[in-house]
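User: Please run a holo structure prediction.
Assistant: Happy to. Please share the sequence and the ligand.
User: Here you go; the ligand is nickel (II) ion.
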Amino acid sequence: MSQLVRFGVSIEEKLLKQFDSLIEERSYVNRSEAVRDLIRGALVERECTKGNAPTVATVTIVYDHHTRDLSDKLNNHQHSHHDSIVSALHVHLDKHHCLEVVVIRGTPAEIRHIADGLIGAKGVVHGKLVFSTLGHGLA
Ligand code: NI
């Protein structure tokens, strides 16, 4: 682990109280760990949204499998990109709704293209793309 450096932060009292409340809710040990996590999150976001370096992401979608042709469309789209899709998890949430989590590897542009085809399909009621990182360069 690299050497720790201390730095001061000026912040409005009200904002700090809200931050402390968040820290407690999320069970952080202290403010420093919470701030480090925020910084890492911002760096991951930056790393993943620009450039062409290979990265990894998950796409989570929820949809009604009775929606006409939707299951086939989602399935066909995933088969068209089988080289980039590492894994897919399907959960039957209730009688109508399915949840899928798809793990994708590729460049940010490739991942976005695949995610857009899933999240943007007509009948998908909720969708979220979350980029992650292989962690190179992060402390
Ligand atoms: Ni299902």
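The beta strands are 55-64, 85-92, 97-106, 124-131.
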